[in-house]
Records
---
Amino acid sequence: MSFIARRGLSTLIPPKIASPSGIGAAQDAARMERVVSFYEKLPRGRRPDEQPKGLFERYQARYFGKNPSAAPLAHLIGGLMVIGYAQHYYFHFSQFFPSRSE
């Protein structure tokens, strides 16, 4: 069991790039210089937050993001009321204007 745990942790630790035995040779020194230049080019610090792009992403970031609120529940209730009113209006007047397909 401990072998599995150590194996899982070993994937999180980067490989040994700068070993003391590899620094002495000129071939390894050139390789080491490429590795160092690669790591120097990597950005430092936290990654900047991405701005939401689409309509749904902006809505989700606004109401479900860092400061969640109950507004989506109110939006859902309001939307259901509008749909219910539209259906009631349509089906109420459909009784007074029968289809002329007869």
---
Amino acid sequence: MSASTLPIQPSPPSPTPQQTAEARAAFTASLLSTGTSTVQSDLQNRAADLHANSAAIDKQEQALLKETKNLGKESDKWQKVVDEGARGVKETGDVQNWAELLERDLCVLEDTMAMVDEEHGNVDKSVDGNLANGRP
């Protein structure tokens, strides 16, 4: 069969304007319902996720507040330890200062006693109790 011998098939009847409008409306409604349900489903899922995440964030916020209070208490404890250490260092400094003043006063007394001994001719003994000429 050649192309010229093929039977000619009748073309389908063309739709009426009313049929075209009805088909277009049905197609648009189908697209809208499919799109709307998908979009609506996505939005509902996102809203559910937001609510779940909000609850988790609230829980984390409460835990963070609790830990912050605990950290504040611990910080106060450490501050007391530091204050006690500083007080101890100050007292040690005060004791050292007192010892230096005492040593200075003893040196003054020693020098005074040495001058008194020189005036009285008692230069036999040195400060540590040994004789001045080096003999015990």
---
Amino acid sequence: MSHHHDDHDHSHHGHGDDDHGHGHDHSDDIEPALQTLLWKQIDFESIRTLNETETDQGAKVVEKTWPQRMEAEPMLESDADEQLLMFVPFTGVVKLHSILIRSSEDSSAPKTLKLFSNRDDLDFSTASDLQATQTLELSQTSQIQDLPVKRSLFGNTYNLNLFIEDNYGDDVTRVFWIGFKGDYMNLNREPVEVLYEKAANPKDHTLVQGVSDMASGTKHGM
């Protein structure tokens, strides 16, 4: 596959997308969902998407807020073929409950979504060869799909790869919104700084590894 890998220039800092379509204010819909919606906990500037037609398309569909979830633009569209691979890092550790996605009723709707937790080294080749943390089957619908994950597999997640392996027959895949539900656990990433035991002689200071060092040890241990 001749996937087109765009370099990220992180120029999409626009959180001011609220001027898009004020007529689509669904903020009063399904209010309980907002209690577990992970949005502020996403590191938007570090999102990267392989095989997107334009740089930062993937980041922009994730960056849409809950009231903007039904809007047609921005949209993520695949380039060389129907596959997409998105890397989404969180600002701390999350217990993931479900993936929220909105696509379409036509054949450009994604079909197979493979999830990989805590990997920052995936490309299309490795994503195709490795066993996914979990595989989800999506429907052809323009409504929001709330796809529960096995919480035991995503209880200590600090980044997530979403590999859209195929769609319903189109040459390209289109996605309009992606969201995440779960619990945020900032404490699992602290202390970040290195701590030392107090000792009379500085040469006797003992290094105490922080929790973050322990967590990072599992990053490549899948």
---
Amino acid sequence: RQPLGKSTNTDDNAAKLWFSIIVLATGEIYGGFMTFAPEWLSGNTSLSTGNWMYLWIYLVFFNGIWVVVPGWCLWVAWGEVKRAFAKSEKLDGKKTR
């Protein structure tokens, strides 16, 4: 007998994983935007952009990683969600015929 809360269906576990990735990646992109956009828009003097290294290496490159990686995760998750819906529609079509 399976313990409560344990699923043996790998599709169910994968669906939970992709949903979690979508939530976390969206939160990461939103958090990055809410951290830096107000600083840029308000012209905060503590956000030093005068030196090329601070601007391009620290600000753009390292913070860009926090946009590119979650963006890639969202892209892959979108493909998995589309695949799951296509599979579901295919199975529903077989059941109704």
